Structure formats: C-alpha cells, structure tokens
Amino acid sequence: MLTILLSKSGPLEGIIQLVVVLIMFLFVLALAYLTARLAGRFQSNVQSRSNMRIMETMRIGNNKYIQIVKIADHYIAIAVGKDTVTFLTELDENELNLEAMANIDKGSFKDILSQFQKKKDENDTDETRDTSNDD
Prior knowledge:
four-stranded antiparallel sheet; 24% strand; alpha+beta; 4 strands; 4 helices
C-alpha cells in the first residue's frame, strides 16, 4: 500500500489515492470511537454493580483529598494523596448528611455547558442594558 502512495502517478490516480487514504482514516477513527464507547459502557456496568461507591470528595490541597467512601453498608473516611491512601476513620451513618449527598446533581457535561451558556448570555444581556442606560 505504501509503495502505491509513493509511486508517481497522474492526477486521477492521485485523487483515487487521496480518497483511499481518507476512507482508511475514517475507518480507523470510527474504530477508535466504537472502542472508546464500548470501554465506557463496560466500565459503567462494572461500577453500577460494585459494592463500593465514593459518596463525597473534598479537596484539601494540591493533589490531596478527603473522601467519604461507602463499602457495603459501612462508611469510611480516607485521605488520598499523590501516592498514598490513608484510612482516617469509620463513620456512623447517623453522623452523615446523606440527603445532601444524594441531592448533589452530577449532570451531564451537556447540561453543565448549557447552564454556563445561559449565565453567560444573561451577563452579556445585563452588560448591554447597563451600557445603554449610561447613554
């Protein structure tokens, strides 16, 4: 195939080679996309059947976090650093505000982007009104 692309040819052969290369590129791109989708679905299925779940994460420094993790029916607090994970304590379910954790909306990227766009549009509209009132 490489020798075909490197050989000298007329304008028609050059166009055909370009089309073949574009088709090969699109095939590889589609294959990569399908592989990523399949891997994502597999990962989400594994996580949904898991007995472990990260309930909440709080950043306390550069590459340092405190997480509340639910393992089966137990809640534990752990400290997560760059290269370490340290057990802090086991938490009683009564000590936790589980309703607040459940109300955290982790909407899709599309939802978050549309909310950001609405806020930006509102700010732009407000600025336009402010400048028109100054005149």
